[in-house]
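Hey team,

Filing this mostly as a record. A colleague (T.K.) asked me to run one chain through the structure pipeline before their review meeting, and I want the input and output archived in the tracker in case anyone asks later how it was produced. No errors, nothing strange. Just documentation.

Input sequence:
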Amino acid sequence: MNDRLLKDAETNLKKLLSGGRYSDAKRLSGRLLEIFPDAEEIMLLNLAARTSLDGAKTDAERQKELSDALEFLDAALSKDLKRREYFLYYNALALIGLKRADEARIKLGEALALKPGFEKAELLAAAMDAATD
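Output structure:
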C-alpha cells in the first residue's frame, strides 16, 4: 500500500513541478515527508521545488528558501542515501543561489567523485565555468 501511495505521490509531484507549480510541490512533498521521512525520491522532489526559480518571490524570500533548503540538505546528507550524488547536486544549486560558488564547486566535486560522469553535475560545473569566463 505504501509503495503504491509513494509512486502516485511522486507522479503527482512531477506533474506539479513540470507545470511550474513549485510552491504546491513543496507543500505536498513536505506533508509526505512528515509521513515518510526517509523517502528519497520525495526528498529529491522537495529539493527540486525548493531550488526552482519562482518569480513571485522577493530576493529576501528566495534567500530564506535556499537557506532552508541547505538545512534540509544537511539533515538529509547525514543519512545513508542511495542517490547521494543528487543531494550534493541540489546542495550545489542552493549554494549557487546564495552566491557561494566556491562551496558549490566543492559539492559538485563530491557528487562527481561518487558518480563519475554524473551529467547534471557536469553540466552545472560547465555552466559555472562559462559564467566566470
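Quick notes for T.K.: The longest helix spans residues 59-77. DSSP finds seven helices and no strands in the chain.
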